[in-house]
Amino acid sequence: MAISLDATVGGASANTYATLAQANAIVEGLIVDDDVQAWEAGSTSDDYRNRALYTAAQRIDRERFLGARVADTQALQWPRSGVRKPDTYTNLYGLSFPNRLVADYYTDTEIPDRVKKAQVVLAVYLNNNRDALGLSGLENFNAVAIGSINVTPRFFGAVGADQVPPLFQEYLNGIRISTPANISIKRA
């Protein structure tokens, strides 16, 4: 059964931040790599693209964002209230220091472009790497032991279920508290 996307801002049944048309417009500006090529290929149906967008939205909603959800009834994490737009200070040189910095905030009916772009980048990746959902997080380790704690990664960086394109992470910088992979370790 084909999935239908609902990009209603703050909607109770919303399941995506970006529509397929918005996603295709963003993809047009990306460098053509294997993932983009697979997205643009005629062999990829709109249903697969919609599923990738839906899945990417679900992954984004695992992040811990600044601010608070605008309504308890909204299905997705955005829109949010009280979130300052990163890098939007206006420097007014004629005023004293604290008064010359003016911050701009996202409105209660606004989905940041950076969230939509992050969703599209992740959707393009998932569309071409469909096994990414089945990763447990242990695939990228040579050895994992409990006694004397021995963890030997095959490489450094994100691994397993949270292995996402770096551009995805960059788009969310400045509007999130942390990634879902952050854990706290307490001494017993």
List the defining traits of the structure above.
188 residues, globular, 8 strands, alpha+beta, two-stranded antiparallel sheet
Q: Outline the low-pLDDT stretches.
A: none
Query: Alpha-carbon distance between the termini?
Result: 50 Å
Shape: globular
Q: How much is the radius of gyration in Å?
A: 19 Å
The secondary structure category is: alpha+beta
Residue fraction in strands: 5-15%
The overall strand count is 8
Set down the secondary structure blueprint.
Blueprint: H1 20-27, H2 34-40, H3 46-60, E1 64-65, E2 68-69, E3 80-81, E4 90-91, H4 97-100, E5 101-102, H5 113-128, E6 141-145, E7 150-153, H6 166-172, E8 176-178
Antiparallel strand pairs: 1-8, 2-3, 4-5, 6-7
Helix pairs in contact: 1-5, 2-5, 3-5, 5-6
